[in-house]
Amino acid sequence: MNDDELTDLATRLRALEGARPMDTLPELAEELGWKVLRTHPDRARLDSGYGPTSCRVFAEQGLIVDITTWVTKGVPDDAEGRAWAQGVFVRMDAALSAAFGEPSRRNSDGVASLRWAGEANTLILRHVVGSLQLTLMDNTWLDLGDRADALDVRHSLL
Description:
By secondary structure, the protein is of the alpha+beta class. It contains 4 helices and 8 strands. The longest helix is centred in the middle third of the chain and has 22 residues, at 79-100. The protein starts with a helix and ends with a helix. It has helices spanning 3-14, 25-32, 79-100, 139-157, and strands at residues 35-40, 43-47, 55-60, 63-70, 105-107, 112-117, 121-128, 131-138.
């Protein structure tokens, strides 16, 4: 995915500000050029262009709370693959920062991630072992995940 394609996708995701009902997923997928592969009331798998299940959606109480799509294909977990993925992450950071301003949060512990907070949702770019993911997550859902992560860290320190 080049910088313009990434910025376009991120802009379209951010425009979804506010919760969408899960039953509107087929229309949303069509709007984004994705193919719905499998749906359940609380989750779905889609092909966003990088193969089967290259996108996942989660819902809570019938509302979409997490849309995550891969924006690169996976690469080997070797020095060359890691260097390539890191280079693309830096390039995508620059492209999204140019479009949306500096991230509201940068995380380099564990899974490297960048966040651009919105009123109801947060756009997240993650560097996950050899591939990059772009996520739009409901802020309440994100806060619950952050709290669970903090508890995990505190528990591991005991």
